[in-house]
Amino acid sequence: MLFGVFAIHSPESCPLNSAASKKVFLNLESKIKSNMKKYQILKVVGFYMSVLEHEWIIILDAKSAHDIEQLCIAVGISSLSTVKIVPMKDYSVIAKALKSKK
């Protein structure tokens, strides 16, 4: 199942402005990869940043939102950001479902 992980931090806690946040940020990719199996993350589909909005968007293929929550705690995302985990579906899946309804 696909999930969008939206993590927002303040300008003060931005990795550009905080040495502690920078350290967390620079280790995120390796920590996520090393914890994928433990938290049943099947795939990191994408990891994007919007620098001026202080927001990270991570698209994960995972078993459950609860596992993603635990991953965010374990790798440090929740130590500097507010996190929202949203189930997502591909456009084509929704379009197909809509076409099949009469």
Characterization of the model:
The protein has helices at residues 19-35, 65-75, 91-100; strands at residues 2-8, 41-50, 55-62, 82-88. It is an alpha+beta fold and 102 residues long. It contains three helices and four strands. The protein has a single domain, classed as Dimeric alpha+beta barrel (Alpha-Beta Plaits), CATH 3.30.70.1060. A four-stranded antiparallel β-sheet has the order 2-3-1-4, with helices on one face. Helix content is 37%, strand content 31%. The model has no long low-confidence stretch (mean pLDDT 95). It is globular.
Fill in the keyword field for this structure.
Alpha-Beta Plaits, 102 residues, globular, GYD domain protein, four-stranded antiparallel sheet, alpha+beta, 3 helices
What name does the CATH topology carry? Alpha-Beta Plaits
Strand order of the largest sheet: 2-3-1-4
Distance between the termini: 26 Å
| Rough outline | globular
The rounded Rg comes to 15 Å
Instruction: State the CATH superfamily name.
Output: Dimeric alpha+beta barrel
Describe the main β-sheet briefly.
4 strands, antiparallel
Beta percentage is: 25-35%
**How many DSSP E strands?**
4
Return the CATH class: Alpha Beta
